[in-house]
């Protein structure tokens, strides 16, 4: 999705309050029903992120209630993160719904999983979600990812909302 000034350039994945949301998800199946479930779930999540402006655990809890009430989606898992400025650092909030935990690459180049209770997949009546938060030092990689100025800025950002 391009910006109004440059249709070929990906817009930064910013929420109205200046935070950045990153989501990774999976729906069981490789058929048209699974593809439609992924698309509708992604769009519901996008709307909830823009409307609620709350931690990922609260957003996933509302998504649980919505999916259970109006869909018959196959098993769906996700990890949702919200990254917001915190002075010279960044605050990272995350929650999972049956998905593997997110992987953080530290400014020193070390990779570490962000521990979180994976919980049940979406729409399994698990309306209470665990949430975690962490403050990380600002680094060029985080700044490029959050500003849309990184080396791949010309590519569509497929993992953000």
Could you provide a short overview of the structure?
The chain has helices spanning 32-52, 56-70, 140-147, and strands at residues 20-27, 76-86, 89-97, 103-105, 111-113, 132-137. It has three helices and six strands, in the order βααβββββα.
Describe this structure in words.
It contains three helices and six strands, in the order βααβββββα. It is of the alpha+beta class. It has a single domain (20-147), classed as Phosphatase 2c, domain 1 (4-Layer Sandwich), CATH 3.60.40.10. The strands form two sheets. The protein has a four-stranded antiparallel beta sheet. A two-stranded antiparallel ribbon has the order 4-5. Helix 1 crosses helix 2. The radius of gyration is 16 Å and the shape is globular. The termini are close together.
List keywords for this structure.
161 residues, globular, two-stranded antiparallel sheet, alpha+beta, disordered C terminus, four-stranded antiparallel sheet, Phosphatase 2c, domain 1
Shape: globular
Compressed to H and E, one letter per element, the order equals EHHEEEEEH
Q: What is the number of strand segments?
A: 6
CATH superfamily: PPM-type phosphatase domain
Please give the radius of gyration in angstroms: 16 Å
The CATH architecture can be named as: 4-Layer Sandwich
């Amino acid at each position: 999705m391009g910006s109004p000034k440059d249709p070929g350039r990906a817009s930064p994945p910013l929420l109205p309050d200046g935070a950045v949301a990153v989501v990774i998800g999976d729906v069981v199946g490789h058929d048209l029903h699974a593809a439609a479930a992924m698309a509708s779930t992604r769009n519901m999540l996008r709307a909830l992120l823009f409307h609620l402006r709350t931690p990922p655990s609260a957003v996933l809890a509302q998504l649980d209630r919505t999916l259970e009430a109006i869909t018959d989606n196959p098993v769906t898992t996700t990890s949702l993160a919200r990254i917001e400025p915190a002075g010279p650092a960044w605050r990272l909030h995350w929650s999972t719904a049956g998905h593997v935990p997110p992987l953080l690459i530290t400014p020193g180049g070390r990779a570490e999983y962000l521990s979180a209770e994976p919980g049940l997949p979406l729409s399994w009546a698990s309306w209470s979600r665990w949430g975690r938060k962490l403050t990380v030092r600002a680094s060029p990689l985080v700044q490029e990812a959050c500003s849309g100025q990184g080396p791949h800025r010309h590519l569509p950002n497929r993992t953000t909302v």
